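Translate structure to sequence.
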């Protein structure tokens, strides 16, 4: 496998009532330990301020780190309770993320084709308010073959 390559990543978040949020970005994907690491920058609020997003994923865990306008560190792993904070310009909110289901499908081939699909359902306790059950789905596939770069950060 190439050291790193450009991939498309689509992230869908779905609330219990069926309302969806959707983002699509181009990321750089690296082989990392027993899984992968993706990095990209995104404008979460639409005001031009970029947030660096780093995603670590393998067959048992998805970790999404965001640093910038909003700072988060969410870990999705089946039957795991993760305590963290949601840092905003207005202050920090304590969050407990409880993963109910984690499914990881890695059809990514050594020939640099295929896809990785992650589906996870979870509960969020924000402050003292429990939100309805939600899910997050990631779809990752190769953007262009053989585009590589050796410049990357190790978080």
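Result:
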């Amino acid at each position: 496998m190439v050291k790193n390559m450009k991939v498309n990543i689509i992230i869908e978040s779905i609330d219990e009532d069926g309302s969806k949020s959707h983002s699509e970005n181009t990321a750089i994907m690296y082989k990392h330990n027993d899984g992968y690491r993706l990095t990209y920058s995104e404008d979460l609020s639409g005001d031009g301020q970029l947030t660096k997003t780093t995603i670590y994923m393998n067959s048992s865990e998805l970790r999404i780190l965001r640093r910038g306008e909003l700072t988060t560190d969410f870990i999705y792993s089946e039957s795991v309770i993760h305590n963290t904070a949601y840092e905003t310009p207005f202050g920090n909110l304590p969050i407990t993320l409880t993963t109910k289901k984690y499914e990881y499908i890695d059809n990514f081939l050594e020939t640099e084709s295929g896809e990785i699909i992650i589906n996870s359902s979870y509960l969020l306790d924000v402050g003292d308010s429990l939100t309805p059950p939600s899910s997050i789905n990631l779809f990752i596939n190769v953007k262009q073959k053989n585009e590589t770069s050796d410049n990357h950060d190790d978080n």
